[in-house]
Amino acid sequence: MDAGVTLEIDGLVKRYGPTVALDGVSFDVRPGEILGFVGSNGAGKTTTMRIALGVLTADAGEVRLGGRPVDLQVRRTVGYMPEERGLYPKMKVGEQLAYLAELHGVGRADARRAVLRWTERLGVDGRLGDTVDALSLGNQQRVQLAAALVHDPAVLVLDEPFSGLDPVAVDVMSDVLREKARTGVPVLFSSHQLDLVQRLCDRVGIIAGGRMRTVGTVGEVRRSGGNRLEVHAPAAPPGWADGLAGVTVLRHDGGRTLLGLAAGADDQRVLASALATGPVHGFTVTTPSLTDLYREVVA
């Protein structure tokens, strides 16, 4: 299967006895797009990814790649990186990566060339003769990504690929994901590093309690939370903004208050209320960061 396909997650439902792990999860990852999939532990990220790969079976819903249901043949075109490292610890890096490429149908000579290319690109080409368990955790993570890339996948599905990496390794891995996306490969990855998601991703999806709460560009998701108003009024008592139309008090810390503004809320009325308590030293309208919005959605 060529790059340039869309990964479609359509209405996935998964139950474990009385526990509903996924409740109608739907989104897509388009050709050449990097989508960040975020949520707290137990929200359903890993379950969704395992169903997308075919490791788990959904109780309802379907996963399609390029319009085709994910069967054994389609799974061979997916590059998957699990959160738990899935490499053989006592097998040498070079031999293992070539073996994994061949399992995906790559010829032996092409597999060796792919191993050299990706280990060099990821900075672990000097460790080809080492066993995996002799590597640092960061280098194991780099080798795990190489394992997802050596068969030239049509889609990348990566579960916490940046976990445990130092800043230099994060930059290297980010560049690799951008490089693959530029070739038309859809990239789906989960992460708890929301500043990285905000910087790297074309779109983001937030899942909580097994349900998708929002999917969109980072800008769209941030704007969906409405504006924030930061007010520094040293003499303002707690509750000074209670009752103002379209205004939600998100945080009050001494004389600093963070307010959420609904569409159409009158910020000048807020300013008048703040001035009624005394001097106002700061009054700034901002858009919430992805981290702020994530906290509110998860809460």
UniProtKB/TrEMBL annotation:
<dbReference type="InterPro" id="IPR017871">
    <property type="entry name" value="ABC_transporter-like_CS"/>
</dbReference>
<dbReference type="Pfam" id="PF13732">
    <property type="entry name" value="DrrA1-3_C"/>
</dbReference>
<dbReference type="Pfam" id="PF00005">
    <property type="entry name" value="ABC_tran"/>
</dbReference>
<feature type="domain" description="ABC transporter">
    <location>
        <begin position="7"/>
        <end position="234"/>
    </location>
</feature>
<keyword id="KW-0813">Transport</keyword>
<dbReference type="InterPro" id="IPR003593">
    <property type="entry name" value="AAA+_ATPase"/>
</dbReference>
<dbReference type="InterPro" id="IPR027417">
    <property type="entry name" value="P-loop_NTPase"/>
</dbReference>
<keyword id="KW-0547">Nucleotide-binding</keyword>
<dbReference type="InterPro" id="IPR025302">
    <property type="entry name" value="DrrA1/2-like_C"/>
</dbReference>
<dbReference type="InterPro" id="IPR003439">
    <property type="entry name" value="ABC_transporter-like_ATP-bd"/>
</dbReference>
<protein>
    <submittedName>
        <fullName>ATP-binding cassette domain-containing protein</fullName>
    </submittedName>
</protein>
<dbReference type="GO" id="GO:0005524">
    <property type="term" value="F:ATP binding"/>
</dbReference>
<keyword id="KW-0067">ATP-binding</keyword>
<comment type="similarity">
    <text>Belongs to the ABC transporter superfamily.</text>
</comment>
